[in-house]
Request: fold
Amino acid sequence: AQSVTQPDIHITVSEGASLELRCNYSYGATPYLFWYVQSPGQGLQLLLKYFSGDTLVQGIKGFEAEFKRSQSSFNLRKPSVHWSDAAEYFCAGGGSSNTGKLIFGQGTTLQVKP
Amino acid sequence: EAGVAQSPRYKIIEKRQSVAFWCNPISGHATLYWYQQILGQGPKLLIQFQNNGVVDDSQLPKDRFSAERLKGVDSTLKIQPAKLEDSAVYLCASSLGPGRGNEQFFGPGTRLTVL
Reply:
């Protein structure tokens, strides 16, 4: 069955430090993958997406992610975290069907220390 | 451009009562999704509409949940009767179409508490 796993439930980093949030997927076919961010009381906002092509994708707010088929991973990175990045981050994937259905990971809560 | 609107934002009910949530998608978006997000989990798709037809409702508990999108625009999700385990945030999302290339835009959600 298709699945998306985020191994880290909670991560704390200092402001200005680099960030990497992990995401692993399990799909038979070539997946299409997304990272969303959710601030308290807000809906989900798309940070970036990967469909095909260049395995390093750039997103909004200075985020990037790298698709690694050999590791079944799609990790999110940011070189320097800002206090405003504190939020919950969700990795999501869609499978071979073209319905647009997304399967979400359980999320990673990011806390930023001043 | 206006985003996806949802109401109410918060709702508290007792178990066995009924409740309804409303969603107004972005204008022109043919595809509408309802997700359930239980605390500490990622969103789970309940139902997907393409215009006013159902594309996927495989994870909708049909004995108590129902949804409609009669005119292919607004949508209503109903729970009757509610159970304690229905406490969650219900997210509505819309996209131009169902294909994998279409970004889903999410509303702020309705937080339901069942006592």
